[in-house]
Amino acid sequence: MSESQARRNNLYSGIHKALRAYMSDTLNRTARLDANDAEELSAGLRQIRELLAFMRSHMQHEASFIHTAMNARRAGSAQVTEGDHDHHDWAIDKLNALCGHVEEHSGARRQDYLDHLHLQLSVFVGENLVHMNMEETENNAILWAHYTDEELDGIHDALVSTIPQEEMQLAMRWMIPALNPSELAGMMMGMRAGMPPPVFEGMLGFARSLLDQRSAQKLDAALAAPQALAA
User: What span, in angstroms and rounded, lies between the C-alpha atoms of 159 and 15?
Assistant: First the structure.
């Protein structure tokens, strides 16, 4: 990626950082699940199902806005991505079915299904990591060649406006601690500019609750900087 490309508007970066964190946490949690602890198992399977539902919704958002934009200015340019999404959709169905099999069995059979679930989730995560890299390189190259940053901002804003509040809160839960300090400060400044002060203060408090002390201090310092106050 050239220096000029690195400064272009990247529609994928923030949400993909969130997804990488969410998938990694879920995969690691699945590896540790105790098949004989009903409460732990139930909570772990719930996180898997919530991740899968989030991934499916994410794919739908990309199809509605990003793929549509790509195909509008280079016909067929989203075809490979759309094919990947079809496979991911199939894999989500299979993983949900495996969660049900874990719940329906007990003893050694339950452990067998849980081990298989972990392996298949590992494959799903690995395929998505490769897929997201393709989106951030090849798809971005198409978007940057055919859209200005102002147009990409419009696509982003239109997409975000369709996300239900509960889904947005889940996205923020994983995105906020996954961003680097500059990215996080930029996002929070944008929120401050577009939200009523009480709403922003609530979001800022939520962000601080997800950060370690050092990261929270960096965010506060960025938001208090003169250039941030003037923005």
Answer: 12
The 3-state secondary structure of 151-215, one letter per residue: HHHHHHHHHHHCCCHHHHHHHHHHHHHHCCHHHHHHHHHHHHHHCCHHHHHHHHHHHHHHCCHHH
How far apart CA 89 and CA 35 sit, in angstroms, is 27
Rounded to a whole number of angstroms, the distance between the first and last alpha carbons of the chain is 29
Structure-token pair, residue 85: 């999404």
For residue 196, being part of any structural domain is answered with: yes
**Count of domains in the chain?**
2
Question: What distance in Å separates the CA atoms of residue 45 and residue 69, rounded to the nearest whole number?
Answer: 35
pLDDT at 225: 86
Residue 53 lies in a domain: yes
pLDDT digits (tens, 9 = 90+) for 84-138: 999 999 999 999 999 999 999 999 999 999 999 999 999 999 999 999 999 999 9
For 154, the domain range is 3-164
